[in-house]
């Protein structure tokens, strides 16, 4: 099966001298496949390895959602709370709940769709400055009326984590998630900090590869600013499966499908898409940030976890991760 996975990956990662990706398949908490393809740094010619540190983009939302549930578990908030309880001056905050933010059903304007984003993309922003940036924009719909993927909601969640815990978001994630789980190669992203085994991000233009567009990580913040490795993400998934961080009740909340006001189902829990793949329910989430794309898929029924991390936003790992998952599912089902 390893050869089949290799050939699936090599059809997408054909350029061995270009940026590439790192891939992992785990079953029952143990790695059954792990390999890296392509270069970590084109200037130096360094190869990517299975220990390379990648930016996760929106896979960050999993960590933000679990941080919120940790605070609920500690009795410091409830997901049914209105956001006005924590941000009193937020327009319409008495109608928007934390649940709405977690499930992308708040109707708040997504800051990534605002034309003014270019003006702040490279500025150092505080969480409050980020919230102020989009809070007066007209809402797209009333809370609970629709599902529309939304980065602003997770910026608001990061801000509330700080308000409730009294800790900076990056410190909260490190102290309450990374440190307890031994995720020693996971970070709040930085272009200045020396990060060993860093994968450098690239974009592809007509004339070839270029270094990624620089942004201030204070802009994506709790919606997309974390970095990690294959090995650390396996520690993360195992901790979720074994209720090491969250109790069974809070874990169920993270992975439940919710409904809109009209009763229509939403295929999203708290920080994960909940969908079907080869007839099985899976929990999946990807990420995209300048120079990087990521995808993680977990199949609870088979305890299979597939992760694909790439260091060029020209290589989308979504379909690749799904095809690898289908291959493993088919093999697993056959072997039973």
From TrEMBL:
Entry superkingdom: Bacteria
> EC number(s) for this protein?
3.-.-.-
Question: What keywords tag this UniProt record?
Answer: Hydrolase
What general EC class does the enzyme of this chain belong to?
hydrolase
Every copy of the Beta-lactamase-related domain together lies at 6-313
By its UniProt entry, which InterPro entries does this protein fall under? AmpC-like (IPR050491), Beta-lactam-related (IPR001466), Beta-lactam/transpept-like (IPR012338)
One GO MF term on file is: hydrolase activity
Gene3D superfamilies for the chain: DD-peptidase/beta-lactamase superfamily
Residue ranges annotated as coiled coil are none
Supply the PANTHER family for this chain.
BETA-LACTAMASE-RELATED DOMAIN-CONTAINING PROTEIN, D-ALANYL-D-ALANINE-CARBOXYPEPTIDASE/ENDOPEPTIDASE AMPH
What protein name does the entry list?
A: Serine hydrolase domain-containing protein
